[in-house]
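Example 9 (inverse folding). The structure is encoded as follows.
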């Protein structure tokens, strides 16, 4: 970062900050880097796993409400807590506050809602009280996003080309009104060398043989993120590939929906892991065909660990995947996914070359680089003027 630039007063507004994943992880990486040169304030319900020595934290009372109501509460509470004249930049996360003059866009809420509606038509909707909360959640997020997009034209930072293109098409913005600052990865943690120790150990722990081809799915929201299609694809593979599923979800419900023909022995469920890099190291490829992925940190982390990517044509995959070189773009069609898994299983040399190329491409993605790009944009926004509203 450039020490000759002016020191900004920056408010970062986000419900929760921590190293777990998603936008919480992105802000946990960004905040301390901006604080090296600027006066950074966090307005949040909770902050975890973060050095706060150079950051001012304003903790808001968390009502522990269902997600949609919690989002609305946070928008109101943060708007009361932030005094607009106090800051040069108030950076919301997708419009999660009513007081802002810049937006950091991590997702595409209206596109996600359309996909969620399609998933519910196919597999059934939420049950119990979730039938009430989920529509409220979708409406709250979409409404806040639309408000932010229209009020902060020219001051929107997207985490990927996919999110940038979504804001342009969804809200009629111009190409120069949405900027891109891609997420990063810690290459000291996510690296190919982890495989030397972790691959045999984790496979032994999971009951997997070294000569088995093992695909990996990592994440939640199983039905939205195409896990049923991946499970069906595994069943179609001629290589009799195995699938390790890391993340929270209802395994019994998933397999029951797949029917009696589903070979349950082909699947290993791991609800939670503390070292995801060990599971990338264990796997022969990552399968992530999610068609509306805003970025997909899991895709970048897998690439950094040096395994081939089978991914949808969206998010980080647009920059990491060259079809047939560092992985394959795949649709949500189980036959397509199965064919690519079999191709990798039949050609270990190809899989190794793809993993090496995926790792090489991942080296362009660092948290320092993203912070520098965002700092440059925030300095520009502050110079242009325009108070939070």
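The amino acid assigned to each position is listed next.
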């Amino acid at each position: 970062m450039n020490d000759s630039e002016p020191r900004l007063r920056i408010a970062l507004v986000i419900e929760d900050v921590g190293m777990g994943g998603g936008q919480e992880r992105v802000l946990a990486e960004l905040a301390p880097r901006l604080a090296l040169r600027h006066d950074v304030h966090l307005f949040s319900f909770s902050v975890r796993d973060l050095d706060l020595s150079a950051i001012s934290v304003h903790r808001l009372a968390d009502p522990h409400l269902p997600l949609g109501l919690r989002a609305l509460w946070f928008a109101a509470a943060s708007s009361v807590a932030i005094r607009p004249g106090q800051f040069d930049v108030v950076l919301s996360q997708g419009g999660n506050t009513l007081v802002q003059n810049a937006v950091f866009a991590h997702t595409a809420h209206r596109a996600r809602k359309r996909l969620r509606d399609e998933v519910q038509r196919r597999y059934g909707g939420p049950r119990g009280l979730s039938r009430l909360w989920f529509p409220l959640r979708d409406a709250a997020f979409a409404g806040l996003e639309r408000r932010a997009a229209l009020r902060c034209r020219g001051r929107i930072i997207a985490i990927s080309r996919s999110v940038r293109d979504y804001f342009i098409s969804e809200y009629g913005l111009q190409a120069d009104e949405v900027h891109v600052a891609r997420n990063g990865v810690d290459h000291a943690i996510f690296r190919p060398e982890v495989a030397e120790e972790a691959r045999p150990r984790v496979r032994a722990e999971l009951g997997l043989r070294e000569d088995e081809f093992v695909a990996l799915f990592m994440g939640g929201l199983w039905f939205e993120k195409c896990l049923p299609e991946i499970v069906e694809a595994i069943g179609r593979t001629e290589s009799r590939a195995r699938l390790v599923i890391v993340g929270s979800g209802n395994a019994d419900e998933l397999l029951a929906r797949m029917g009696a023909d589903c070979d349950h022995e082909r699947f290993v469920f791991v609800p939670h892991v503390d070292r995801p890099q060990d599971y990338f190291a264990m796997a022969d490829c990552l399968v992530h065909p999610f068609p509306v992925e805003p970025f997909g940190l899991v895709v970048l982390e897998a690439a950094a660990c040096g395994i081939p990517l089978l991914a949808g044509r969206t998010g980080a995959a647009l920059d990491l995947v060259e079809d047939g070189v560092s992985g394959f773009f795949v649709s949500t069609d189980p036959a397509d996914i199965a064919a690519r898994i079999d191709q990798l299983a039949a050609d270990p040399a190809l899989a190794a070359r793809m993993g090496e190329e995926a790792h090489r491409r991942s080296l362009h993605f660092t948290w320092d680089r993203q912070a520098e790009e965002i700092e440059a944009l925030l300095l520009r926004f502050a110079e242009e003027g325009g108070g939070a509203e």
